[in-house]
Amino acid sequence: MALHLKKRWIDRRVYEYFAVNVAPYLGWRDPILVYQMGKVGSSSIRNSLFRCPDVRTRLVLMSHEFLPIRNRRLSDIEIEPEYRDYCRQEIEHDRRVFDAFDLRKKLGWRLRERFYAERIYQAYVKKKNKLRVITLVREPIANNISMFFEVFDHYADTRAEESSLSVEAMIELFLMQYVHGRPLTWLDAELKRMLDVDVYQYPFDLERGCAMIESGNVDLLVLKCELPDDVKAKTIAEFLKLEKLELTRSNVSSKRAHADRYAEFRRRIRVPESMLDAMYESKYARHFYSPEERAQYRDRWAAGVSV
């Protein structure tokens, strides 16, 4: 009988090490990969699957990239010319951030890459095993603001909750220096490059907010972040053929240490028209969001929001 490790009773980090460094040698070949761009509600999904007792969820892994961004070659990324500069900016930014780390942080960062993210790639992705993959999309301005607060120290050498910058200065830093292209390029620069699945070649159900794609060895669920949690849970359960899934929220920006500054930032920011054009006229936004939704988001960020 195949071993089913009861994930919910052990530390998640211990489980993750087991899943990528031991499980492949026990014959486990059926991973669920929560593989996404970041700040799209993925921790909630990963942690909910981690607690799920169904044997079909015995192997749950999550990553934003399998190999370091700083080591990407722009020539290896198949993407339209208008998005290539975003890819270049992200590669260069990732190199600068890593180079600025002290030796201890570089070693910790590298160990996590080497013995987790890269092991997912070597043990499961590269071998072309059957993969069940869940990825999420989120409207790009909200995604970028949330990610900006997550990696604030990459831009200001301190965490957002400890920064002496005013909210106005934070907004200026975000608008002028933050690398805004990740939501627009991640599906090409990362997912397509690693899994050989071009999601833009498949229809996306705007009404349901999802797409279920079968391509080679990959079964892929593309899910809209903005869906209600009960709809997400039902859709994921359908995709994974689970009887049910209870979705519990994790890593929510509005509940973290920087929550007050994050909320004030969102209230006060006014996004320039040029940036709204770049985000909401992109192929990403047009593929996953209806014209009505994109118009609502444009109005929201042009005028500011109240929550």
Describe the structure.
The protein is an alpha/beta fold and 307 residues long. It is built from 13 helices and five strands. The protein has a five-stranded mixed β-sheet with strand order 2-1-3-5-4, sandwiched between helices. Helix 1 packs across helix 4 (103-125) and helix 3 packs across helix 8 (182-195). It is globular. The model has no long low-confidence stretch (mean pLDDT 93).
Nutshell version of this structure?
With 307 residues, the chain is α/β, with parallel strands linked by helices. The protein has 13 helices and five strands.
The N- and C-terminal alpha carbons lie at a distance of 51 Å
Separate helix tally: 13
Q: Report the biggest beta sheet as strand number plus sense, adding barrel if it closes.
A: 5 strands, mixed
Secondary structural class: alpha/beta
**Helix coverage percent of residues?**
40-55%
**Order of H and E elements:** HEHEHHEHHHHEEHHHHH
Radius of gyration: 19 Å
Runs with pLDDT <50, length 5+? none
Mean pLDDT: 93
What is the approximate shape? globular
Strand order of the largest sheet: 2-1-3-5-4
